[in-house]
Design goal:
The protein is α/β, with parallel strands linked by helices and 396 residues long. The chain has two domains: 7-206 and 350-393, Crotonobetainyl-coa:carnitine coa-transferase, domain 1 (Rossmann fold), CATH 3.40.50.10540; 227-314, formyl-coa transferase, domain 3 (2-Layer Sandwich). The protein contains 18 helices and 14 strands. Strands 8-7-6-1-2-5-14 form a seven-stranded mixed β-sheet, with helices on both faces. α1 (16-26) crosses α9, α9 (167-190) crosses α10 (200-206) and α12 crosses α14 (297-307). The protein is elongated.
C-alpha cells in the first residue's frame, strides 16, 4: 500500500486521533496504539445507549481498524523507556491528549526530539497547545457551537442546529492524517522531522471555507443566517434547498427557475423572471414548496429527469444500504466481531482502482503487547519482567 513502511506510535483516544490513525493504517502504515491496562476511552463508551458488537464498543470499532494495541502504565518510568525504544524504529509519535499531558509523563516534544531528532511529533488538540482556550475540553458539539457551524446550519424557525454527526472530529481526523502524511513525505525527501499540530476548532472552521469566504466578502451580518427553513444554505439562490413532498423530502439543487417552472408546470414561478433569485429566495422557496407538497417522488423524478433538473431524494441511514451506487462502490463492509457481525464503513478512497481491504482489530487492550515488544527487540526475559512489574500488560 501507499504508506507501507511508515511506523507510528499512537497515543490517540476518543475519535479525532484514532480516526486519523485509521486513515493512515488503511493506507499501510503500522500503527501501535498505546493504551492503559483497562483500555482507551473509546473501549468503554459508545453512543446509542452504549451499543456494542460482540461485546466491543461500536465507538472503538468505528475508528481503530488495523491498529495494534500495546498496554502500558505510563506513570511508571520503565514505560517511558519502552516508548523510547519503540520510537527508535518509528517515524511518528501521534497524540491527542490535552496540552501538557505527555510533557508531564516525560514524553513531550522536546524530550522526544532530544532522543530522536528526526521525529515527526504530531499533536491534535481542541484549541491549540497555547492560547486562552488551550485548557478547555475539545469536544465536537462544543466546536460546532464555537466555530459558527451550528448557527449556519440552523434556520429562522429552528435556531442553531448541530450537524447530525461528529463533523468536526471527522474532518479534524482527515486533516491530522493529511499533516502526518505530508510530514512523512518531507522525511522521505530530507530525513527531517516535523512538529505537526492540528485543532478541532480549526477543523470546524475549515469545514466552512466556502461559506466564510462569501460571508466576509459580502459585508453582510448575522441576520443573513436566519433564512427560510426550505433553504439549503444562507448563501445560495433559490430554489436550492430541501422540500417536503407527499412521500418524504426532496432536495433541489442549483437550477434555472425557468426550467423548474416548466418541469413543475408552475406559472407562479414566472412572476420571478428577471428578479434576483437570492434576494427573493424565501418567496420563491414558498412557491416551490406549495407546488410540490402533494406530489410523489417518482412523479417529480420523471419530470425533473426530462427537464435536466438537479435533484435528489433525502435518504436516511436505512436507505443507504439499498443505494445502488454505494453498493457498487463497496462503501460498507460486514465485519465479524467475537461471533457477531457489525456493518462498518470501508476506507473512503480507492488506489489503482481498489479499496484497501485490511480489516483487523485489537479487540482487547494489550492484544499485541508481546508481539510489538518482540519486534522492537525486547527479549523474552525483558518482556516477562515488564509484565510482572505491571509496566506492560498483555491480553490473555
Amino acid at each position: 500500500m501507499l504508506l507501507d513502511g511508515l511506523k507510528i506510535v499512537s497515543f490517540c483516544h476518543y475519535l479525532q486521533g484514532p480516526a486519523a490513525m485509521q486513515y493512515l493504517s488503511d493506507m499501510g502504515a503500522d500503527v501501535i496504539k498505546i493504551e492503559p491496562a483497562k483500555g482507551a476511552f473509546e473501549r468503554h463508551w459508545s453512543g446509542a445507549d452504549g451499543v456494542k458488537a460482540g461485546g466491543v464498543s461500536a465507538m472503538f470499532l468505528c475508528a481503530n481498524r488495523n491498529a495494534r494495541s500495546l498496554a502500558l502504565d505510563l506513570k511508571k518510568p520503565e514505560a517511558r523507556e519502552v516508548v523510547f525504544r519503540l520510537l527508535e524504529s518509528s517515524h511518528v509519535l501521534a497524540e491527542n491528549f490535552r496540552p501538557g499531558t505527555l510533557d508531564r509523563l516525560g514524553l513531550g516534544y522536546e524530550a522526544v526530539r532530544a532522543r530522536k531528532p528526526d521525529i515527526i511529533y504530531a499533536s491534535a488538540t481542541g484549541f491549540g497547545a497555547t492560547g486562552p482556550y488551550a485548557d478547555r475540553p475539545g469536544q465536537d458539539l462544543l466546536i460546532q457551537a464555537m466555530s459558527g457551524l451550528a448557527a449556519a446550519t440552523g434556520n429562522r424557525e429552528s435556531g442553531p442546529l448541530p450537524a447530525g454527526c461528529a463533523a468536526a472530529d471527522q474532518h479534524g481526523a482527515a486533516l491530522f492524517a493529511l499533516g502526518i502524511a505530508g510530514a512523512y513525505a518531507r522525511w522521505l525527501r530530507s530525513g527531517e522531522g516535523t512538529r505537526v499540530e492540528g485543532t478541532l476548532l480549526g477543523a470546524g472552521v475549515d469545514l466552512q471555507a466556502e461559506s466564510l469566504a462569501y460571508y466576509y466578502a459580502s459585508g453582510l451580518d448575522r441576520d443573513v443566517l436566519r433564512h427560510n427553513p426550505n433553504a439549503g444554505s444562507w448563501f445560495h439562490d433559490a430554489p436550492y434547498g430541501i422540500y417536503r413532498i407527499a412521500d418524504g423530502h426532496i432536495v433541489i439543487s442549483m437550477n434555472e427557475l425557468q426550467k423548474l417552472e416548466a418541469a413543475l408546470e408552475c406559472p407562479e414561478l414566472g412572476a420571478f423572471a428577471g428578479r434576483n433569485a437570492y434576494h427573493e429566495r424565501d418567496a420563491i422557496s414558498a412557491v416551490i414548496a406549495g407546488a410540490i407538497g402533494q406530489r410523489r417522488f417518482a412523479d417529480l423524478a420523471a419530470a425533473f429527469d426530462a427537464a435536466g433538473i438537479w435533484y435528489g431524494r433525502v435518504e436516511d441511514y436505512d436507505d443507504l444500504l439499498d443505494n445502488p451506487q454505494l453498493q457498487h462502490n463497496g462503501t460498507f463492509r460486514d465485519v465479524a466481531v467475537n461471533g457477531e457481525t457489525i456493518k462498518l464503513l470501508s476506507h473512503p478512497m480507492r488506489y489503482d482502482g481498489k479499496t484497501p481491504d485490511a480489516c483487523g482489530f485489537a479487540l482487547s487492550p494489550g492484544a499485541d503487547t508481546r508481539d510489538v515488544l518482540e519486534k522492537a527487540g525486547f527479549g523474552a526475559a525483558e518482556i516477562r519482567a515488564l509484565l510482572d512489574a505491571k509496566v506492560a500488560f498483555a491480553a490473555e
